[in-house]
Amino acid sequence: MTTPDQAPQGELQDVHSAGITIPATVVQAARDALGEFFFRLNGTAPLAGALDHLDTTRCLNQAKLLQRFEPLSGKRVLEIGSGYGTTLAVLIRQFGADAFGVEPDGEGFGSSLAASRILLNANGIEPERVVAGVGERLPFPDASFDIVYSCNVLEHTQVPEQVLLEALRVLRPGGLLHFEMPNHLSYFEGHYLVLQPPLLWRGLLPWWIRFVCRRDPSFARTLRTELNPVWCRKTLARIHQSYPLQLITLGEDQFLQRLSSPIQFEMGRVASRIGPLVRLLQKLNFGNWAGRLIVRLNGYYPIHLTLRRAP
């Protein structure tokens, strides 16, 4: 990945990664919004945080994970919460998908919708493939996509169950749904980059952030900390009454595989905080006993909710 130097604002350069061009204006928008936000949250330098988020290596890995379950070429794909457009560009340019994205306009990080359209246009992709909207009210007809995908978005939504219902509504019978999300029964909080106890009630995370980590808990109060494997199974059982489905995995197999082999962190800021601890755990993990114990306790991270809508 070709990255700009730690340059002052106005001197950033285009980034070229995995055949995708990320214009300097998009890098600057991500640095000024998302990068500054995470700097206040966990101390990551704004430009480093923005480049972590824009890194197309992570997008390639996510697309390859999707291809374990469904070939992407020619498939109509919807990404809920398409951010700055890097995953959309990779899906279209590198995997031949007919991909679209939904991103809020003027909410959250603010600049992401406009910036994503700039990125798509710079790569010869129609900017209108990203539409303004939220996961609870998708602006698409019923049964219009082969694959519905989302990564680290559900924890920021107002009504997570409604997002899943909407995703299944626009998914064709036999289609694939894949949502990646944090597991709040695990031992790591990925926004603040701190260790945490399993969250058994919603008020625990803000309390932990304020009194143990000594940080501002305002953002923690906005997170949907009920997301965990138990919540997934109960929610899917209710949804099954409206949209019959087949659960493929919640990500246990992928967690066990990652823990039993040299781990590759997708984001540098995560590797710098917990890399040594994870590597120590791997050294002690003879026969993957620790991984199996963590799975039994529903503490694996992240959740990869993968299912098919029944034909």
Specify the overall morphology.
Answer: globular
Named at the architecture level, the CATH assignment is 3-Layer(aba) Sandwich
Question: Could you say what the CATH topology is called?
Answer: Rossmann fold
Largest sheet data: 7 strands, mixed
| Helical content (DSSP H or I, runs of 4+) | 25-40%
Query: What is the quaternary state of this protein?
Result: single chain
The order of strands across the largest sheet is 5-4-3-6-7-11-10
Low-confidence runs (pLDDT<50, min 5 residues)?
Answer: 1-10
Number of domains: 1
- Spatial gap, N to C terminus: 41 Å
User: How many strand elements?
Assistant: 11
Task: Write up what this structure looks like.
This protein has 311 residues and is an alpha/beta fold. The chain has a single domain (15-183, 224-309), classed as Vaccinia Virus protein VP39 (Rossmann fold), CATH 3.40.50.150. Helix content is 40%, strand content 17%. The protein contains 11 helices and 11 strands. It has a 7-stranded mixed β-sheet, with helices on both faces. A two-stranded antiparallel sheet has the order 1-2.
